[in-house]
Design a protein that fits this description.
The protein is mostly beta strands. It is about 5% helix and about 40% strand. The protein has 1 helix and 9 strands. The strands form 2 sheets. The chain has a 5-stranded mixed β-sheet with strand order 1-4-9-8-5, with no helix packed on it. Strands 3-2-6-7 form a 4-stranded antiparallel β-sheet. β8 and β9 form a beta hairpin. The chain is globular. This is DUF6386 family protein.
């Protein structure tokens, strides 16, 4: 289990290779709801709005029996970052684990990212899936 502290009430999960095009964008590009939703629907990143700043424990599982939300996600490099929303690629910076977060190695492909929240514990599972895009009409909350 890993603890992640967010000051933006948001956790993110993404393959940094898929957001490299955002490197020179504003560091808070994703705080614009339309930009956040477009990146999530393209399968480039999963943003989980948790409703409050603070510390959250992240637990990884093979699969979740009753996820609260599922986000389809593409992985091209085989390396996924899980961290605070403020650590997403942008403003000339890419994520690292100096201020929290973790990198997880998964085979390149498309995934059904299952998420479940129980208070300050967020459970995640990367389940292989043929689909790598989403059709959310609003931001993802958990």
């Amino acid at each position: 289990m890993t603890r992640i502290v967010t000051g933006t009430a948001t956790l993110c999960v993404f393959d940094p290779a898929l957001l490299r095009h955002k490197l020179e964008d504003d560091c808070d590009w994703w705080s614009i709801p339309g930009a956040e939703l477009a990146a999530v629907n393209a399968g480039q990143v999963a943003f989980f709005n948790v409703g409050g700043d603070g510390a959250y424990d992240i637990a990884l599982h093979a699969e979740l029996a009753e996820p609260h939300v599922v986000v389809h996600l593409a992985v091209v490099s085989g390396r996924v970052f899980i961290g605070a929303g403020e650590d997403v690629t942008g403003g000339g910076l890419e994520p690292d684990t100096a201020y929290g977060g973790l990198f997880v190695d998964v085979p390149a492909g498309s995934y059904r990212l299952q998420a479940r929240r129980d208070e300050a514990r967020i459970s995640l599972a990367f389940v292989p899936d043929a689909r790598s895009s989403n059709a959310f009409g609003d931001l993802v909350r958990i």
